[in-house]
Structure formats: C-alpha cells, structure tokens
Amino acid sequence: MKKTDKHRIYLDNNATTFVDPKVLKEMLPYFKECCGNASSIHGFGRKARMVVEDARETVYKLIGADSSDEIIFTSGGTESDNLAIQGICKGLKKNGNHIITSAIEHKAVLNTAKLMESEGFRVTIVPVDKNGFIDLDFLSNAIKDDTILVSIMYANNETGIIQDIKKISEIVKKRNIVFHTDGVQALGKLSLKVNELGVDLVSLSAHKIYGPKGIGILYLRKGIPIVPMVKGGHQEKARRPGTENVPGIVGFASAMKLADSGFDENNEKIKSLKHRLYKGLVANVGDIQVNGPIDKTLSNTLNISFKFVEGESILLNLDMKGVACSTGSACTSGSLEPSHVLSAMKVDPVSAQGAVRFSLGKYTTKEEIDYTVSILPEIIKKLRKMSPLYEA
Ligand SMILES: *Cc1c(COP(=O)(O)O)cnc(C)c1O
Q1: Which stretches of the chain score pLDDT less than 50?
Q2: Ligand 1 within 6 A of 78 CB?
Q3: Is there a catalytic annotation at residue 331?
Q4: Residue nearest ligand 1's atom 6 by CA
Q5: pTM for the full model?
Q6: Is residue 179 within 8 Å of residue 169, measured between CB atoms?
Q7: What pLDDT, on the 0 to 100 scale, is given for residue 260?
C-alpha cells in the first residue's frame, strides 16, 4: 500500500474512536434547530426531554436492564466510575467502610478508591495472576462483614484481558454486596447484559464506541442507594444534577444501536485483523511476547512487548511513519514508569518497558495491518542496535 500523509493509520481505538458519521448525523439537529433545555416546559424543552427519554429507553433495553430509571447520564466513564464508588461509599456508609477493587483497574477507579481511603474507608486491592485474571480466592477471602462495595472491571483497556464477571458476581452476591463493573472497554466488544452478568452498577462511555466524547452512563440497579457527587437541580432524578447534554445523549444511544446491530460482523472482522497483526509480528520480529492470552482478550486489543527496546521509542517511530498506537505505561515527569497493569501481572521490567498496545477498530483495514507489519521489523532492529540491553 502506498501511504501518503493524508492516510494516517489509527490503531489506538482503546484511547478513543472516531465518531461514526451516522452518529454525527443524528446528533447535528440537537446542536442546531432542536436545542431546548430538557427541563423547560415549552415546546423546545419538551422536544429535548422527549429525545433524552427515548435515548434512555434505547439504552436500558440494549443492556438488558429492568427500567429506564436505572440509566444515569454522566459526562463519561471517569465520572461514572467516580459516581459509582463515591456514591455507594456515601450511600452505604452505615453498613460498613470496606471496599474492594483490583490492581488492574483504570485510574478512574484506582484513584477514586485512594480518595475513599483518605476519607477513612478501608480499601483492599485484589491481585491478578500472570495472565491478568483476578485471584478469585483472594477476592472471596477479602470480603468481610463491613464490605459495602466490590468494583472489578469487565475488560482491561491496556491488555484487553476479560474478567469472568458472572463468576465474580456469584462470589460477591453470595455475600449480598453491591457489585460495580467498569464496562467501558467491554461495550460493543462483549455481551453486556446487566442481569445476565449479575452486576449492580456499570460504567459506560460513548467515545470508545464511535460516539462523542464527554458523555457517559452509569447503570444503577433499582433500589441501590447512591449519594450524588454534585448538588444542583433535579436532573437525572437528582442523582446527577446539571442540564442534560442532549446531543451527547442522542449520540450515545445512536452509537449503542450501531454497536449492537454490527456486533458480530465488526468483532469478527477486527479479531481476524488482530490475529493477522499478531502472526505478522511473530513471523518478522524476534524476542516479542504477548501480554494477556490472545484468545482471552478483547477482539481488538493486542498488547505486545518488544524486548530490549522502549515502547515509547517504538511509538514515536511508528508515529513518524503515520501509525498511531500507544504504550500501556504513563510517562510520569520524565521517568518512564512501567504500567501498573503489567506490573500487577508481574511482567518483567525489560518486557514491560517495551510494551506497545495496538487497539484496532471497525475502520481498520487489512492494508493498514500489513503496512504496520511491514515497517515494524526495521524500527525494532534500529532501536535494538542502539539499546544497551540488547546483544544480538
Ligand atoms: C476510557 C476509559 C475510562 C474513562 O472514560 P472517559 O469517558 O474517557 O472518562 C474508564 N475506564 C476504562 C476501562 C476506559 O477505557
């Protein structure tokens, strides 16, 4: 494939996705002619209220919830995680002050758990095994009489590792404890029906499924008390005050409908491209390892360690050639800290440093994968030549 500047290859769909033109088209009227406040009682407001409630209907049905009252619109996955954890901690304080989460959660969960700790809650972090799966015995033993919440993610954003949420739910529900899952990466990629999974709260975000940024959902099972994080009006039944993001809500529902109708087709295509990428790399680059068993990870996510080189350098070189992907690790103040997810899986530091996350999407093509496979061996060879760790 001839690649020009105009053709940049996007393999970072776990960070965010491009808005599907069909979603954008459905949203546009709510920026232009239909822009009432859903709380206003005049015609403009009533129209806005109607589309918000239509979207809520669509959403609750798609996730198999019991009623539209269980859907709270938020500003995104981060806010949903915060509202779930902070809201339950405040809402169930009288029952205890212990919460449980895992070592591989998104920072929106881990840092909220830290905040709760600073406010006097006890936090237990469940470890994972070398494949990234939650230690179920540890979890089971960690649940005490004062435990009020367990929060374990459905699928990990860095490695794509999928947890057995049904099994975890059985353990948690046997003890009658509220169970939250961060379902942001699972949506559109895995079956996500709240009653089948046995979850009480689920965080979702539109921009990971070809919807707009800045709109999220918290599914909250009926009867579970939650204390809102912000004070204001009565919107979202006072659980999340603030004027509704009407175009965002319309866009989220639209993106969820598309994800549902294209579920099998998209995931099968993406999965075969992921395997094509994996096979191409195995055949053409030595000293690599996959982080997370390839068949137990999301259809679109491939986290690969290129030993003896830094993931950061690989990604800069790929970027220069027009390929966008990411490292799992966050670069903190100049020092390259290995990813907390890979550390939790006890990936050795040399491999963790060389980790690159390729996350494919529904717009990824075979040609793009082949181009990526064609340029990587040269990049890795060059970087290894410069690496003090590498002896060919
Ligand atoms: C992206 C992401 C979030 C945060 O969602 P935002 O809408 O970007 O705030 C939370 N959890 C996971 C697993 C994610 O991948």
Answers
A1: 1, 4-5, 332-333
A2: yes
A3: yes
A4: 77
A5: 0.96
A6: yes
A7: 98
Place of tokens 């499924």: 209
Q: How far apart are CA 292 and CA 308, in angstroms?
A: 19
pLDDT at 329: 63
C-alpha triplet 9, 351, 297: angle, nearest 5°: 60
Question: What are the φ/ψ torsions at residue 178 (nearest 5 degrees)?
Answer: -70, 135
Count Cβ atoms below 10 Å from residue 210 Cβ, excluding itself.
Answer: 28
> Ligand 1: does its nearest atom lie under 6 Å from the Cβ of 183?
no
Alpha-carbon span 184 to 217, nearest angstrom: 9
In the chain, where the domains are located: 9-19+263-385, 21-261
The DSSP element (H or E) to which 243 belongs, if any, is none
Beta-bridged to residue 101, according to DSSP, are: 125, 151
Q: Pick the catalytic residue: 34, 35, 89, 331? A: 331
Q: 211 in ligand 1 pocket by Cβ < 6 Å?
A: no
Close Cβ partners of 173 (under 8 Å, ≥ 6 residues apart): 179, 198
CA pair distance 185, 259, nearest whole angstrom: 13
Domain 21-261 has CATH 3.40.50.300: no
Q: Alpha-carbon distance 125 to 113, whole Å? A: 9
pLDDT tens digits, one per residue of 280-330: 999 999 899 999 999 999 999 999 999 999 999 999 999 999 999 998 765
Report pLDDT for 337: 78
Q: Is 17 in the pocket of ligand 1 (CB under 6 A)?
A: no
CATH for 9-19+263-385, options being 3.90.1150.10, 3.40.50.300, 3.90.400.10, 1.20.140.150: 3.90.1150.10
Pocket probe mutation, ligand 1, options 14, 78, 300, max atoms within 8 Å of Cβ: 78
Handedness of CA 347, 287, 156, 63 (dihedral sign): negative
CB of 377 closer than 8 Å to CB of 285: yes
pLDDT of res. 328 = 72
